[in-house]
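Protein modeling request. Please complete all fields; requests missing the sequence field cannot be processed.
Requester role: graduate student
Desired output: 3D structure, token encoding
Chains: 1
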Amino acid sequence: MGAGRAPPGGAPAPAAAAGSGNPVLVFPGQGTQWIGMAVELLDSSPVFAARIAECEKALEPYVDWSLTEVLRSDDPLERVDVVQPVLFAVMVALAEVWISYGVRPAAVIGHSQGEIAAACVAGALSLEDAAKVVALRSRAIDAIAGLGGMVSVSLSAADAAERIAASFGDRLAVAAVNGPSSTVVSGDADACAELVTALEAEGVRARRVAVEYASHCVHVEKLEAELAELLGGLDPRASHIPMYSTLTGGLLDTTGLDGGYWYRNLRNPVLFEQAVKAALADGHRLFVESSPHPVLAVGLAEMDAVAVGTLRRDEGGPARLLTSLAEAWVGGVTVDWTAVFAGTGAQRVDLPTYAFQRRRYWLDEPLAGPARTARQEPPESNANAMDESEPGDGSALRAELAALTGTERALRLLDLVRRTAAAVLGHESVEEVEEHQPFREIGFQSLTAVELRNRLGAATGLRLPVSVAFDHPTPADLAAHLRAQLVEEGLAAPVSALAELDRLEAAFADLTADKRARAQLRARMQGLLSALDDEPEPTEAAAGVAEQLQAASAAEVLAFIDNELGTS
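Delivered output (568 residues):
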């Protein structure tokens, strides 16, 4: 536990990140809002409540509604001129909470309208100027509402641009580049609908973003003159925290954050991937998303960044906040735990010096009900191997798999996937994760799918794509994929051959005593041994036969021998 290692036989802990000290605070654009997202912290965090009050005062000259009343309301957040200022306030207040717990931002990055919050937290804009920008600009956007839309697609920016040029012309444009295969497209509403239909027919993931306007494209140009007038008189200054701009893709001189910058921020593509890569190149590895729900985790994970959220949808209280603090601390972020637990009576204690007992307290078979004959139980985990391994390299699991037969490996990997999925979703029992139930139906979304991928990658040592839980949509499918990847890397192939010899040996015992059949079998086996000595390159056909044998039952192995040797 102290070393951050996975518990023996259980789901692996989140991988620790390289780096130390201070994270990059990330502020997303629109789409993270949910009803009641700030209520629990308003009632439990004095720091959060105080910063929200300051934001409300700064917004008052530009809005005709109350920030705290909106946050406590059960009405959905739909109007862009309400959603964006409210999200701005919540993101800024959450950043203040992180800072109050000793987390000092090493830099900030804002995505689209999130750049306004980033500039405020970095000190480039005063709270009053930032409130003016977010309130007046969101009100201006209402003029283009209902004319366009936005679509998130699982394509690279280059592939998305090529498809747009070929089929849509200037009706669509690349609006945001969130990661190597995470892009947002914006433009005419009917063109967005056509794009979603076309991509879904090809099996490419595409979803409409919940907005009725098209930012970061030509639609915004009609607002240029109005925004120049509305946003005049800003007083940008040099920030005390470095700011990576998603307009330019690199570090920014924040004295240039005038009204013209905020128009270009709305009109031009969001270069989030480029900005994150610039931060990574400067040595930053951990990114904390200061928002009511993380939405940038997929893009960050694609770039090998470690992403930590703050709150999550329907998890807006102290428990979720403490979990996020712990995740950040495990990743290397400095947290002032004295401030976190001030006034609670909590104190540091040493871990017990005796070994963990590792006792099982659950039954292998149910006391009543139908017998479980269809499913075999996975083999016991190699606890000692898990203890000796380094976290995140997969060596413990690989050592364990090396001692198992092919069937046992399949069961062990399925158990790993189910237990890890249950841990990510907070289930108390692995039985709540059915092996053939799609991850989407179990409750996985983009964020939890990335967390599942991260944990399985740490356990197996495999480099898994962020979409692995959707590419292999059930626990059984994903376990089979992990097994195939391990075999492909040569990690299980030698043991697979030995396991198949065990099965063949058992099959030989059932053969007839026919001397001719035994002579043919002996000759065939000698030929195989000779081929093994010569170490020839395996042919595609041989590989196919080996794969069939590995998946075959004992009866099918006997039938294979009969067909090959002519026995009957």
